[in-house]
UniProtKB/TrEMBL annotation:
Ranges of residues in domain ABC transmembrane type-1: 20-304
Segments passing through the bilayer: 20-36, 56-89, 127-151, 157-176, 251-269, 281-302
Domain of life: Bacteria
Membrane topology: Multi-pass membrane protein
Protein name in the entry: ATP-binding cassette domain-containing protein
Length: 581
């Protein structure tokens, strides 16, 4: 049950002073809280024996007031310190998760779905934070505070009465242990169901246009209803166990009260204790209700926290497939790029997506990469970005193996525009500045001209300050592509990768963008993957991929003379363009 505290020992060791202060202050506040019942019993005895004077009464009232003020001040200190520590743990863990997500490769995101990761970053962190705050409180109250009350009842009143009143405690311990095991299992399943529901909501929101286009609103709503019912049922299973805690505690506490009142009254009649002692004892017995409840709350919180911590740790323990070199080389500039007999298969596949790829690229060259859908164009770029392990052969930049270079340096050289453009829910200015944080409006307008986006920005309601919406929903496909291009251009990367990034623009716009690229990137390397061959006709070297292998390569003119797939595709596209015209 206490395994969660052991798993969090790294945090408690770091903030041991904070938690030690909070626990000591909590114990002092609890000790002060034990004094008023004794004063009440003392006052009752004086009233009973008619020995209460006005001077004594004033002293007792002043004593109460002083205790209230001191108790309030110390309670504020332990509450602020203890629950402040819980908030720090939540912040730390959330930061660790975010850093972990940013260092992960596509393999990780293939294993864990987005909605589940969101659940682990929200609900599970709340449960862990509750353990480090309320969990510590219930631990102290259900152990130290309970023992303090029992000691006061036994040493200052009657051990016989105290032991008799505590007979229900062992029963409570057995029952609570069984409840705790059930809570852990059911809460884990409930959190998993919540993660699945998150995934479903996320997919529905992202695909709302497709859902509407295919008139699937009712079916999607029905599917969501089924998932929410599943989450509801699993949470109801947790609630059923939760609901048993309080009634069980009330029955056991009621038994303790019954024993205390019955046996205590008999002791008063036999003159073995005073009426004031009986009143004090019953006040202490009332104070014992919370520590008894705290036992149940402690088990509940610890089991929830343990289940959530296991889920979070499972995520954090996932090792990145791509790791930094121990002693990375530093390279000043990208003088050449070389693929030497490179073969690669995805971790989930037994078939090579790339096979024996050899390519030498000099600085300043433009490389065209073409081929049928699924030929391996995107995979080739992912290897250059070091997104996957298990590469056979060698990939070198400036004659240094890619594995010996720092990941930050590799990616700082590269401006990547993928097939699926990612737009952040910010303004167009902020989306472009993602490539260069301190970019001025002048620089932004320059790259928008390169991306042929100036006319579009004039038509948008707020210009650069236009909000693009969730995933760029307010922009057309072509506009998103050109904003993504501008974002890559403003970075002025040594290596620019355009992965079918001109597919949503018309032929004239594509031609203008390509012309701009040729002018500004004469001394820098560019890779262009495209299905429309007009995008690569100007390239210094073109490779044609087929089933992961280089089927043809050369310049545009050389490939036309080969009478292969490239020439056939080029002629067919020219004819189609002619028909359009």
């Amino acid at each position: 049950m206490f395994a969660v505290f052991k798993k969090l020992d790294w945090f408690f060791k770091h903030y041991w002073k904070r938690y030690l202060f909070a626990i000591i202050a909590l114990i002092i506040a609890s000790a002060i809280g034990l004094i008023p019942p004794k004063l009440a019993g003392y006052t009752i005895d004086h009233i009973q024996f008619d020995t209460l004077t006005s001077k004594l009464l004033i002293a007792l009232i002043l004593g109460y007031l002083i205790l209230i003020v001191v108790h309030y001040a110390i309670s504020f200190l332990w509450d602020y310190t203890l629950f402040g520590g819980a908030v720090i743990l939540e912040r730390w863990t959330r930061s660790k998760l975010m850093s972990h997500f940013l260092s992960m490769t596509p393999t990780f995101f293939g294993k864990y779905r987005t909605g589940d990761l969101m659940a682990r970053s929200t609900n599970d962190l709340k449960a862990i934070s509750l353990t480090a705050g309320f969990g510590v409180l219930t631990l102290v109250d259900s152990s130290v505070f309970m023992l303090m009350i029992i000691a006061m009842m036994g040493f200052t009143i009657s051990w016989n009465l105290t032991l008799a009143a505590l007979i229900p405690l062992p029963v409570m311990a057995i029952v609570m242990n069984k409840y705790g095991a059930a809570i852990h299992s059911r809460f884990t399943k409930a959190q998993e169901a919540f993660g699945e529901m998150n995934n479903d909501v996320l997919e529905s929101i992202r695909g709302v246009r497709v859902i509407r286009a295919f008139v699937q609103e009712k079916q999607d709503a029905k599917r969501f209803e089924n998932m929410t019912n599943e989450v509801y049922e699993k949470n109801i299973e947790v609630a059923k166990i939760d609901a048993l805690f309080e009634p069980t505690m009330k029955i056991l506490v009621g038994l303790s009260y019954t024993i205390g009142l019955g046996y205590g009254a008999m002791l008063v009649f036999e003159n073995q204790m005073t009426l004031g002692d009986l009143v004090t004892f019953n006040v202490y017995l009332g104070m014992l209700i919370w520590p008894m409840f705290a036992v149940g709350e402690l088990i509940n919180i610890l089991q929830r926290g343990n289940a959530s911590l296991d889920r979070v740790n499972e995520t954090l323990d996932y090792k990145a497939d791509i790791r930094e070199a121990r002693d990375p080389f530093y390279v000043n500039q990208v003088s050449n790029i070389e693929f030497k007999d490179v073969s690669f298969a995805y971790p989930t596949s037994s078939i090579d997506q790339l096979s024996h790829i050899s390519l030498h690229v000099k600085q300043g060259q433009t490389i065209g990469v073409v081929g049928k859908t699924g030929a391996g164009k995107t995979t080739l770029f992912k290897l250059l970005l070091r997104q996957y392990p298990g590469v056979k052969g060698e990939i070198k930049i400036s004659d240094v193996d890619l594995h010996q270079l720092s990941l930050d340096q590799i990616r700082s050289w590269i401006g990547y525009v993928p097939q699926d453009q990612i737009m952040f829910s910010k303004s167009i200015r902020e989306n472009i500045q993602f490539g260069k944080g301190n970019a001025t409006d002048k620089e932004i307008f320059r790259v928008m001209e390169l991306a042929h986006f100036l006319n579009d920005i004039k038509q948008l309601p707020n210009g650069l300050d236009t909000q693009v919406g969730e995933s760029g929903v307010t922009l057309s496909g072509g506009q998103k592509q050109r904003v993504a291009l501008a974002r890559a251009f403003i970075k002025e990367p040594e290596i620019l990768i355009l992965d079918d990034s001109l597919s949503a623009v018309d032929g004239k716009t594509e031609s203008k963008i390509i012309d701009h690229l040729r002018q500004v990137r004469k001394s820098k390397t560019t890779f262009i993957a495209a299905h429309r061959l007009s995008a690569v006709t100007h390239a210094d070297h073109i490779i044609v991929l087929e089933d992961g292998k280089i089927a043809e390569e050369g310049t545009h003119e050389q490939l036309l003379n080969n009478n292969g797939w490239y020439k056939e595709q080029y002629i067919q596209q020219q004819l189609e363009d002619g028909e359009v015209e």
